[in-house]
Each structure stands twice: as C-alpha cells, then as structure tokens.
Fold this sequence. Notes:
The chain is α+β, with helices and mostly antiparallel strands.
Amino acid sequence: MTLIPRQPVPPLPSKLVGGGDWSLEAQEPEMFTLAVFYRGLHCPICKPYLRDLDRKLDDFAALGIEAVALSSDSQERAEQTKADWGIEQLPIGYGVSIDTARAWGLFVSSGIGKTSIGIEEPALFNEPGVFLVRPDGTLYASIVQTMPFARPAFDQILQSMKVVKERNYPARGEA
C-alpha cells in the first residue's frame, strides 16, 4: 500500500517498553509525530540510527515534533534493544503487526539467520521507514526502504523541518 501525502494514515497501535500503550491517534504534537520504524534488535545499523535520534529528541521537541521508534519485535527483544543500545529518552514501541507494517507501506522481509552481530532475525520483520504525520492524522512525508542501509539523517530532517515550520511548507507528492 502506498500512503499519500495529505491523506489520513492507517491506525498505528503499539506497546511501549517500560509499560503502557502508544497509538498515533492519541498523539498531540504541535507540528508532527515522527514515527521511525526500525528493523529490530538483530539490526546492526538500527543501533547507531536510533541512538542518534535519542540524542536529538530535544531538538525535535523544540520544533513541535514528537518521536517514537517502532518495530515488529517482541517485548523481550524491544526491552533488550533499549537496554543494550543505551536508548535513554526515545519511546520504543514493539509488537507492530506485519499487517500494520504493510498497511503503512513498509517492506517486509523473511529472516535468513543470524546477522553480523550474531542475533537471529525474526521469521518476518519490517524494513525501515520514517514518517512525519500531522496532528490531524494526515501524512506529511515518508521515506520507505527495502534495505537497512542509506537512511535519511536526522540532522537533515531537523534542518528541513525548520524550513517547513518557517515557511509553512506544504506536503508534496499528493498529485
């Protein structure tokens, strides 16, 4: 499924490491919710990527952007992710269903064994995606990938969002 800018996004429920439920519908950011889908505990590229976002949360919050990292990992794997990767502030959601991942237009991969860091891939898991969603639940922007590498840098996203805010730049790609 391809999501279209300026159109409503599908529901996005998740459980959070540390307890509680998270849903996109319950978020009330000033500007955007930044939903970052990561591959899971097995991914060696996800670790520095989420750690970078964790360090930049205050910068995003200053622009009115609330962030969450989400995966199809189990609770145990998500808890290990947060602890082993040193994620301090970034909310980590887990248990995103494969059907939900597909509804968001994410690619889904089958596990092929242990990764370079020696952790087994799940039978099925989502590939990376970054979504900016307006408070009204419509898509502003998305970046979806078939592979774990070459992800958009959070510094670039931050700089772009400053321009978006200053110029009230509209969502693009809806035609």
